[in-house]
Amino acid sequence: MKDGFIRVAAVTPNIKVGDTAYNTKEIIKEIDNLYKKEVILAVFPELCITGYTCGDLFLQDSLLKGAVSGLAKIAKATAHKNMLVTVGLPFSLRGKLYNVAAVLYDGTVLGMVPKQNIPNYSEFYEARHFSVPPEKEMNDWFRHPDLLPLEEDFLGIAFGTKLLFQAENMPEFVLSVEICEDLWSPIPPSSHHALAGATIFANLSASDETTGKDIYRRELVKNQSARLLSAYIYADAGEGESSTDLIFAGHDLIAENGTLLAETERFQNSSVIAEIDLGRLISERRRINTFRVTDPEEDGYQTISFAFEEIKEITLNRIYPKTPFVPQNKDDRDRRCNEILNIQAMGLKKRLKHTGAKNAVVGISGGLDSTLALLVTAKAFDMLGLDRKGILSVTMPCFGTTDRTYTNACELTNILGATLKEVQIHEAVSLHFKDIGHDPENHDVTYENSQARERTQVLMDLSNEVNGLVIGTGDLSELALGWATYNGDHMSMYGVNSSIPKTLVRYLVHYYADTAAEQTPGAKDTGKKLHDILLDILDTPVSPELLPPADGKISQKTEDIVGPYELHDFILYYLMRFGYTPKKIFRIACRAFEGQYDGDTILHWMKIFYRRFFSQQFKRSCLPDGPKVGSVALSPRGDWRMPSDACATLWLDELEAMKL
To answer: Residue 65's domain is classified under what CATH number?
Structure first.
């Protein structure tokens, strides 16, 4: 296993009801195909060796013997394949017939798990043939001459409902099994298995198809994987089972922590393969302290150990969106944008109401962040029923301001109905240079930061004049990189954008532009004007505009200095959300940005990110309040508590040691 990834499959083989020899051959054929694809866990459907719809044939010795014979052949076919396989069959033990899942590895039957919840309603009548495993025999061992040579010197084949199959050389891999209806029960067995340490669940199913059932089934699998912080592999019976009154569609599903990784087209027998990230699951369980594990031995669990052969690094086919903070589907994205704008505005509304402030002060530059802050402030004022004239929108031109950004800042303020105030800060900053003996021709960090701090002073003093709050404009990406002037634009009285990454800022502003007519009261053409001005702001390069323009155009482009924000946001997400190592983030970044950035470019900007992320923590340790809107935030009072002097050596050494 490399970086926590393993390849798994859910399979719907061709079968003939009652023809165990045919079914065995088809299952072995699928195993051989999956082995070539480097799958190390393959899940087959419920009772697939005989067929689920055998009815009273389950009571026939010939069928039961044929099932055991088929299982022995399938087990033999797994030898030297480095693949764990689960198959379903009817199995008789101590005079009772059970619907079981057999777990096979390297020519051996490791164990059998009986179905616990036997449906006997509507079209199901399993209780006519199968027994519920008794409590006192939850875990047992048995020997069978056709499945286990009698001279083998160990207990035998494990049988029970509390079995965990753990790879000795891959401790994150802990498999447990449930069968079809078990998942539909009020408390699925997998809920207990997860607390005992299971990370992967195989569900062998024979779920017949009725209208709309696929939607329910899909959500059930996704939700259970989310609830248990696990991977869930669901293999469904297919076309060969369709008989008499029932139709089976072969709806195979693979989910990981609430995300559907892959599923098959219904009504055609096939298989589905996906890469599971066990590292992500372990990271989530480690992070969420309410996921309380139990002692498996005290709870009666039996751990069946086995060892995979050396796992080769697999090629990732898994899709990683370039913008993990932004939903890919437009409808989902629009809903998310609307929700986030409301969260931001509600947070500011509460702060304004609590302080009794009827005014707000926003430094408006004509850039994306200040635009979003002004839009959110307008929304908060509308929620409170306050006149937007109480929003003091302050533009503060200086050495780097261009006509384009200045004009956009002024027009946006006027369209929104806020109060525009212009404060030229050239003279104040020049006087400051004279006071501290700084050469204004030296365009160093002092030259830049003096402007940012002067602007913050102006905003703070104006807020005192109007008895209002200074609304912060800085975003999450800037906080991660420390791309803010300490005690300059770093400071405010409430930071509405503090947990909005730069990639998401763009979509929020674009969404506001698309819905401009709904967002702006007033004249008929106001919405159109707002739409157009927002699109022009979106088209403007990201820049602090602290250096003089070149030929009237922006000369200082942020992404030329710190790197592409889409890359930094990608790194930030997987660093913060799952605690991935630099190597792992690099690997999935290469997958996500394939054809856009080469490995050398990604590695270069990753080094920049880690250096800045660690060295700039002191700025995050004293952030103003701001609303949390997503699963990643950097507030020192909530999600991220890191010493300001923490060392980045481990992370940087890992990057330096990488050979492309």
So the answer is: 3.60.110.10
